[in-house]
Amino acid sequence: MLSERQRMILTAIVDDYIRSAEPVGSRSISKRSDVLFSPATIRNEMADLEELGLLEQPHTSAGRIPSIKGYRYYVDHLIRLGGVKEQDARTMRSFFAEKMMHWEGAVSHAATILSQMTNYTSIVLGPEMFHTTLKHFQLLPLNETSAVAIIVANTGHVEHRNVSIPEGIGMDDIQKIVNLLNDKLTGIPFFRLKAVLHSEVANELSRYVDHCEHIMTMLEQSIEEETEPKVYLSGATNILTQPEFKDVDKVKGILDMLEETPKLMQLFHSLPEGIQVRIGTENALEAINQCSLITATFSADGQALGTIGILGPTRMEYGKVISLLNYLSKDMTQMYSRWYK
Amino acid sequence: MLSERQRMILTAIVDDYIRSAEPVGSRSISKRSDVLFSPATIRNEMADLEELGLLEQPHTSAGRIPSIKGYRYYVDHLIRLGGVKEQDARTMRSFFAEKMMHWEGAVSHAATILSQMTNYTSIVLGPEMFHTTLKHFQLLPLNETSAVAIIVANTGHVEHRNVSIPEGIGMDDIQKIVNLLNDKLTGIPFFRLKAVLHSEVANELSRYVDHCEHIMTMLEQSIEEETEPKVYLSGATNILTQPEFKDVDKVKGILDMLEETPKLMQLFHSLPEGIQVRIGTENALEAINQCSLITATFSADGQALGTIGILGPTRMEYGKVISLLNYLSKDMTQMYSRWYK
DNA sequence: CGTTAGCACTCAAATCGGTCGAGTGCTAAT
DNA sequence: ATTAGCACTCGACCGATTTGAGTGCTAACG
């Protein structure tokens, strides 16, 4: 257990380092108006904090910087969440006012304003269709051999993909099939579509037309892989403004990782609900072992929809970012909940 | 007009510099097996070439590097286009075999393989709907006040957007409207849709239902801004591997520019057909004044569809990239032409 | 006994002078 | 016209020195 003074000194060091990106010395802390001890006293405490693993020294004659463990303690016990800046709050409010209608765009726009407000990189995992249901299914023939399958969700989200039409299927058959599917599948959650397709539709279908198994394959193609959420990225280059990343080689790995959508998906998929803070090596991916990732989930009526996240250096403005994500995720939850009804 | 020897020396310097990224001296050129002159002779020629503005000297005691003008001369007169490497050709062939069906994905995948083959950044401006025609229009009500408009092009390309339904319009009205629109608008090129909507549909519409002007507004909303092509980007971080961009500040501007889709659109929109090479300051955007951009358009039956491009340092492997873009753009044109019929 | 002043010590970063060598331009010989 | 020779230039590199911020330890102080 840390003493009150140790906590205060640790806080001061983390705050200072977050601001300046330079090792913090005992002198500069003792000069703060809220600190009444001499540099020597601070030094003693700093030595203790280092022994506890909360601080580190880049080299003997430098000041201290927080260790991963130090940041962790700071985030868990010391942080005081200042509210959201009035200007940021206004930005977000106008965002919701404006984007109520076009929400496909809303998610990517959320990423944009997040990165602008924080000057870090923002990553948003789009509204999953996982818990949404099918509203309408359509199959539009383009020519004799191929067609576009269009899938509309109850949320207004639309997906489409090209499929090839099995031989021996006529236009009238297709209409029958589409009608049958809309009849049987409307209202079914996406993640159950494939199962229901087999259990309910297959039998019925065989009565109408031949080539049943080919059609089934086509229909499966139409709906599979559509449940994948999308990843939106913004401000990827903000990392370049951070002094600890002025070396190109360090940055390369991070930016490469950000270009790989599947990696990001994987990273975000294993996250629990609520606000999560992953500091440095706490992250699963080695590429961002020098970064911190803060994430918040949003949902509608208790159903998880997606995740918004901020990626920055370990020396991140934790307080500000956590407040912001908290605010935005709650508002997004509210917005989507309203849409659901 | 340059002498044969000057042309040979310029070629040698550009080739060497492209390979090594270091100023080329007279000695290293004279050592090449295909050069039979002494360093002193080469030096004299180099001085002349510098006077003509084709070469530059970073400082007095360094070798020469090509100037913008030098690269330009090289690209216009000296370059010899080696064919495409067998491995690259195979990559592209398998790409076409595999991606014939899903071509929404095809364009982004083309960007990916381009950046992988070249180790530069690839930018692809997706198949424009500008010259494509409407295949089918659909309006799916979500609730009483909003609906999803779905637009299918003859290419199989699908766009959708949310619209709000004017008051006093019932389900049956909507069906009538959709039928009318499909009747009148099918086969019309996208860029004429709005005009035809006013000239052909407006009158007819007023006979069916009231609130005609509100509906017109809604329909306009449904189809406008859908003609925008999409930008696909791949290998943005490849620029970081270039020695001339090991300084973060230089790279920041470029990567920032790449994140701004509208800027890229604008950049690509003003490009003429065929293969274009823009070297350094020849580029309109200041952010890429240290880069070269090579672009090639692809089309179908003479109608421009999109542009594929490679962005790299001015010290780019022009020969290789031009061959590659030429090959790929022709194949894409072929592929899309086959699709058209 | 906790706190603090004083001091010797450490070490990265900046500064400086010197050397090295790749490359040039010019001149004179071939 | 070509080339060998040579003096010259200038960035890159190297090592030595200085500087200064910051520490740890000890002894003095209230």
UniProtKB/TrEMBL annotation, chains A, B:
UniProt keyword terms in alphabetical order: Repressor, Stress response, Transcription, Transcription regulation
Keyword Disulfide bond: no
Transmembrane segments: none
Superkingdom, natural source: Bacteria
Any one GO molecular-function label of the UniProt entry: DNA binding
Every Heat-inducible transcription repressor HrcA C-terminal domain range: 106-322
Domain Winged helix-turn-helix transcription repressor HrcA DNA-binding: 1-72
Pfam families to which the protein is assigned, alphabetical: HrcA (PF01628), WHD_HrcA (PF03444)
Any GO BP: negative regulation of DNA-templated transcription
SUPFAM superfamilies: GAF domain-like, Winged helix' DNA-binding domain
Listed HAMAP family: HrcA (MF_00081)
Protein role: Negative regulator of class I heat shock genes (grpE-dnaK-dnaJ and groELS operons). Prevents heat-shock induction of these operons.
Family per record: Belongs to the HrcA family.
Protein name according to UniProt: Heat-inducible transcription repressor HrcA
Taxonomic lineage: Bacteria, Bacillati, Bacillota, Bacilli, Bacillales
